[in-house]
Amino acid sequence: MAGDSTLKFVDREQSYPGKRAPKMRAEDFREIADRYAPVAAEEQAGRCSQCGVPYCSVHCPLHNHIPDWLRLTAEGRLREAYELSNATSTMPEICGRICPQDRLCEGNCVIEFSGHGAVTIGSVEKFITDTAWEEGWVEPLVPGPARGQSVGVIGAGPAGLSAAEYCRALGYDVHVYDRHDRAGGLLTYGIPGFKLEKYVVTRRVERLKAGGIVFHESFEVGRDASLDDLRQRHDAILIATGVYKPRAIKAPGVGSDGVVEALEYLTASNRKGFGDAVPAFDNGSLDAAGKHVVVIGGGDTAMDCVRTAIRQGATSVKCLYRRDRANMPGSQREVANAEEEGVEFVWLSAPQAFDADERVTGVRATRMRLGAADASGRRAPEPEPDSNFALPADLVIKALGFDAEELPVLFGAPELGVTRWGTVLVDNKTLMTSLDGVFAAGDIVRGASLVVWAIRDGRDVSTAMHAWLKAKAAAGRKAA
């Protein structure tokens, strides 16, 4: 019975896998915590209350069967736990590592509300699937019976990869086109190794390649082919490019050398981790070593930047954010990790100008206060009078988030409909764009969001594409 192995939250304390000491983990880009030993995983999974309405599942974008695979883990039935976890997610071990569980499943755990501390869902999820890889339980991607139709996926990030996997399993020929030389999108080049070691992404991609999905890397739509060219090659197209246009800061000196974009900085660091030649890193432009670093922003990308700078040997690292800690969009766990590693947070502060000689030398900022709530319900920051101050800076990293690129222009497809925010406009039921047979999913539709939402969108759009392609094939047979 479930009660024999679960419901242990009263007499069993919450315990996450131990983190390495801050000084030690700041010396490399390895993940900061190892996974559970099997006994520890079973014990922590056994804390689940198996509640009648599992808010953890409700608040998971994928609606993972969390209480069920926690129970199976607590009973030592790991292979069954993996199969159930894998049934709703194409990347459970990636979500276990990088999802903000404190805002999603764990933040809505019933025993968290009761004061006993949430079940450590993400750490158990990571344990389950890493064990499955080691034990050989992760099965190859087996294509369904060939349908004689092909799908072209633009973008090899989580939304595109998830949709590609589902479409291939349904029997479609699948081609993935991506501008980078490695698949994975932000999983590969945006998220640092201390949160997601790269072999975790690589083995997923290799599984897709072995299943017959064809990857066209270093391929830019608009340069190597227009969107219309791809429409001629394939029966259906999915746009899953994500959003990569950095939000700008309007302030004097923002164009100075040494004021760089977050993704440019993180990509350079991740490429060095792969062993690539990165001239802008090697000449010091994108290397924080020995520098006073100021990162502007309060989301998870900003946290990735500050923690990367620490590992590169920065002299000091400060994070400048215009709201307070309670109102920042990033994960509180990431903030705590950053503070442990030596990052200083300058809350309620916003940049006004960037001083520079040949390169940036400092940031002039002003203190902020939280005023009335804005349209989203968050209290809007406003400047405090006469509160200017200055910070020394040899490297300033702008991490204010991302917007959509101008895809109709980039893709040579002016007829592609977009919203007033530049995201691709889709029909909410069919997930099709204004172009027949062209679908879109992930951040390019919903705006900058979480990896788990991209995976969910990839799953949903593959279902929509399958329905449309079946109808297209049936119409073709009828016409013949």
Automatic annotation (TrEMBL):
Residues 25-136 form the Dihydroprymidine dehydrogenase domain. The keyword Iron applies. Pfam families: Fer4_20, Pyr_redox_2. Keywords: 4Fe-4S, Iron, Iron-sulfur, Metal-binding, Oxidoreductase. Residues 151-458 form the FAD/NAD(P)-binding domain. PANTHER family: GLUTAMATE SYNTHASE [NADPH] SMALL CHAIN (PTHR42783), GLUTAMATE SYNTHASE [NADPH] SMALL CHAIN-RELATED (PTHR42783:SF3). This is NAD(P)-dependent oxidoreductase.
